[in-house]
Amino acid sequence: MGLDQPLWKQYAFFLRDALHGDLGRSFVFNEPALKLIAQRMPATLELAVTAVLFSMIFGVPLGLYAGLHPDGFFGRAIMAGSILGFSLPSFWVGLMLIMVFAVQLGWLPSTGRGQTERCSACPGRS
Fold first, then answer.
1. Beta bridge mates, 32
2. pTM of the prediction?
3. What are the pLDDT digits (tens) for 97-111?
4. How far apart are CA 78 and CA 8, in angstroms?
């Protein structure tokens, strides 16, 4: 693995291999890393496209409204919600959204992408 080489040389070897499409092997799955990335790419793209669509459908009109009516109640509420959204850590917001939409409302599968069974250990579920 070249761990006896200096750090700069290890990095140079990694860059050379990465330019040829070899990102190494996963320690956990003992498979090529590029294969694992390719397997998970559809779910990542699905999330990215959905996020962009939501921001365009909801964010742009709300931002326009808040910009056109900055002194109104709804304009101020939209701006306050926006500031709050930027201020909170994204990992915490993500966990809270999972709790609401997957656990409390049951709108999302609780076992992962593509799974349909429900979580029997979740509160309020059987």
1. 25
2. 0.62
3. 889 988 888 887 766
4. 50
